[in-house]
Design a protein that fits this description.
26% of the residues lie in helices and 29% in strands. By secondary structure, the chain is of the alpha/beta class. The longest helix is centred in the middle third of the chain and has 11 residues.
Length: 112
């Protein structure tokens, strides 16, 4: 399973960003057998867009083959596009590592 987390930085010790579409980075994590197999940080190129950041960020998730997104807040346009691509959305807060453990332990709230 591939998960994307909106992040304030490039590491698993960084925090979930307050927003999805305009977060500085996305942490892409592959989970297999309830363990983190690998991760990468990608810079969010949508942050400086005047409009359409939510759509662009959601399309990037589809292009990367993401199965689920974890964030604090997702706007209506991004929500629509993520739903179109059948990407699940979960609400998380705090350090990426902690939030991933909560996701693996099925303790996060799913919003779609």
């Amino acid at each position: 399973m591939k998960i994307a987390l909106s992040s304030t930085g490039k590491n698993l010790t960084d925090n979930i960003s307050d927003v999805f579409a305009r977060c500085p980075y996305f942490i892409i994590v592959e989970i297999e057998n309830q363990e983190i197999k690998k991760f990468e940080a990608i810079e969010n190129k949508s942050t400086d867009q005047m409009s359409g950041a939510g759509v662009s960020a959601a399309q990037l998730m589809a292009e990367k083959g993401i199965n689920a997104v974890i964030t604090k807040n997702v706007g209506p346009r991004a929500l629509d596009v993520l739903n179109q691509f059948k990407i699940s959305i979960y609400i998380g807060d705090g350090a990426i590592e902690k939030v991933l453990r909560e996701f693996i332990d099925e303790k996060l709230k799913k919003i779609n």
